[in-house]
Fold this sequence. Notes:
The protein contains 20 helices and 8 strands. It has helices at residues 8-17, 35-49, 68-74, 80-83, 105-118, 136-147, 166-180, 196-204, 211-215, 217-227, 252-268, 270-273, 300-313, 315-318, 324-333, 345-361, 366-371, 374-388, 393-409, 411-417, and strands spanning 22-28, 55-61, 92-98, 123-126, 153-159, 192-195, 232-239, 283-285.
Amino acid sequence: MAKEILNKEVLTQIKEMKEVxxxxxxxxxxxxxxxxxxxxxxxxxxxxxxxxxxTLLVNSDGGSTDGTPELVKKxxxxxxxxxxxxxxxxxxxKIVTPYHGIPGxxxxxxxxxxxxxxxxAKACAVVDSDLRSITPEWIELLIEPVLIHGYDFVAxxxxxxxxxxxxxxxxxYPLTRALYGKRIRQPIGGDFGFSGKLxxxxxxxxxxxxxxxxxxxxxxxxxxxxxxxFKACQSFLGAKIHQAKDPGADLSDMLVQVVSSVFHxxxxxxxxxxxxxxxxxVKEFGFQFEVGLEPIHVNLERMLDNFKRGVTDLVPIWEKxxxxxxxxxxxxxxxxxxxxxxxxxxxxxRIVHEFALAYHRKTISxxxxxxxxxxxxxxxxxxxxxxxxxxxxxxxxxxxEALCREFENQKIFLLANWDKGKKTKSRR
Length: 428
């Protein structure tokens, strides 16, 4: 029998509640500045849109020292009557609990999944604790597709600045779309809806002591839902306002963490994605509208310097990962200045696929493989900015769509080479 991860106090609360219909989880770690707003928005959404259902807010905290759990406990809704069409039959309950296990969002989610299982929750959602743009409508849009329309997984769909989310736009979205055939625009969005059935499925997976649980739980949730055949959709939530970063800033650790999770999942689900030959849209809920977005400063010179330094210093490593013709082309574009710099999408897709193959074959240490991708990613970012500097949001999305199609077109290369030259032992 699996070891119980919930403490006695939480188990007592669960015993008293018996069951809930809707559960919303908020993982946290030192989010005292932002979490009261998130708690109010979630509570208002539950009271306003699910007044006849038994609802629960769960804060799964990673040992905050700034008073985050205490703020969750004492945050209440004021002027609730202004929001409501009818008075709720049940109050919004709260459970505030530390999570156990290795540090990271995955352990927090595991606690939320376990509470959902114990209370036989029908529909669940998780939202980030540092959101500044969350509204009560987010809760409706993440829960209703599950509770009313029978979906198992609801991905978020945000309007974002064209230079925000570059890891998603350049790698994660186009690659996962080509692999698994579903056009889920924000597979690592962080705010998801899911059924109780899917929560239980997640709970059975043996990933919670791995780096995937620490660093890649968002893409793991999306990929697991799609690859294991659960019914998926997405909901338009408007803007996601958070601490956006210049793509030229030091995102190396984030890139390594996310891409390693994507590549790990490719190995786990190879039999699934090998059978997928095209992609299709998923059902979308919510009304799309234009939103104001915070500007993002982009330091092109710094990104291009990092790319050129990589071409100078990393060729001995890349020779173990990339084809000779790819390296020749990288040297050619490294001679371009910042204004004329272009990194063709067909070259970028080939590189991502060859990195995935090298990771799979363990040609060298996997961490060295992943870290050596950073300057190439930065070079692709410089090109994307140059290509879209005067482009509208619609035109930028067309560029991303073209990249997605290129990933789909080149998937045949990935499939043809997946089992060639695979190492039997890791060099890690």
